[in-house]
């Protein structure tokens, strides 16, 4: 049995399971049932998804990539036939996926804001460097060596922070200092091209088309909060379609 004390240590394991759910949900679910661990794993997964710190940050699946893998795995389960996923389990999976998609969307947006701010800081640093060089060339105002060292030190700190590195300050250490935006930008995976919002909406539309009664029953379980989340996810999926087509067009024109 997996104990509550071991939740954190099993996060990578659950990500692997979520990953294979995405590629082959029916076979993976059957294997978990055959091993007699399906219920235990799902209970563990949902508990881990709900765990948050006092600050409101998630305890588990903190990276963008982790959230995306979970979203794809859970969404793949939603697309399974009714004889694979009971109505109660479907409702639980659907709501958990909605909440995780919203968290993923917010984290991606925050990462973009941070990157844009870093780019602005780099541009400002470059402009300051040009201005400093002009001042040195003019030589109209003398600068003491000590003052110049201080200016250079500040500029170096500004550049380091603009490039995404944080200068360590021992006084700033606390339990909530985990970096939720530490995805490895160099890491490439087969799911990089899969948009979780478009995939989710497409899966729900497929359920609606193949089993209207099941879809209607699922929608009736949603309160106002989850209806709002679902509408927001659907709207964002449409926005992502437009953005992706724009990116493809820009890439094609650049060639």
Structural account:
By secondary structure, the chain is an all-alpha fold. It has one domain (4-254). 69% of the residues lie in helices and 0% in strands. The chain is built from nine helices and no strands. The chain has helices at 11-23, 25-35, 38-50, 64-78, 87-138, 145-162, 196-210, 212-220, 224-254. The protein is globular and about 75 Å long. The N and C termini lie far apart (55 Å). Residues 112-149, 164-189 are annotated as: Disordered. Residues 17-163 form the Importin-7/11-like TPR repeats domain. This is Importin-7/11-like TPR repeats domain-containing protein.
Q: Which key features would you list for this structure?
A:
9 helices; disordered N terminus; mainly alpha; 255 residues
Number of helices: 9
Cα end-to-end separation: 55 Å
Query: Uncertain segments of ≥5 residues (pLDDT<50)?
Result: 1-9, 155-174, 176-181
Largest sheet: none
Overall mean confidence score, pLDDT: 81
- How many beta strands in the DSSP annotation? 0
| Computed Rg | 24 Å
**Based on helices, strands and strand pairing, what is the structural class?**
mainly alpha
> What is the helical fraction, as a range of percent?
55-70%
Gross geometry: globular
């Amino acid at each position: 049995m997996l104990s509550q004390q071991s939740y954190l240590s099993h996060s990578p394991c659950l990500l692997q399971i979520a990953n294979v759910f995405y590629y082959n949900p029916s076979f993976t679910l059957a294997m978990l049932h055959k091993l007699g661990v399906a219920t235990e794993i799902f209970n563990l997964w949902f508990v881990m998804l709900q765990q948050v710190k006092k600050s409101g940050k998630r305890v588990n699946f903190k990276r963008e990539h982790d959230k995306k893998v979970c979203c794809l795995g859970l969404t793949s389960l939603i697309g399974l036939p009714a004889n694979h996923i009971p109505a109660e389990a479907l409702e639980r999976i659907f709501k958990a996926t909605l909440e995780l998609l919203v968290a993923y969307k917010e984290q991606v947006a925050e990462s973009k804001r941070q990157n844009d701010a870093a780019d602005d800081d780099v541009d400002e640093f470059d402009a300051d460097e040009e201005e400093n060089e002009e001042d040195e060339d003019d030589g109209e105002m003398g600068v003491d060596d000590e003052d110049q060292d201080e200016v250079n030190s500040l500029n170096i700190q500004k550049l380091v922070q603009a490039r995404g590195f944080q200068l360590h300050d021992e006084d700033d250490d606390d339990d909530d200092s985990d970096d939720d935006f530490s995805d490895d930008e160099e890491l490439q995976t087969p799911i990089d091209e899969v948009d979780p919002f478009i995939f989710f909406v497409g899966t729900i539309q497929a359920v609606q088309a193949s089993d209207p009664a099941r879809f209607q029953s699922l929608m009736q379980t949603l309160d106002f909060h989850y209806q709002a989340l679902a509408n927001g996810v659907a709207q964002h999926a449409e926005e992502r379609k437009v953005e992706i087509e724009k990116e493809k067009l820009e890439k094609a024109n650049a060639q």
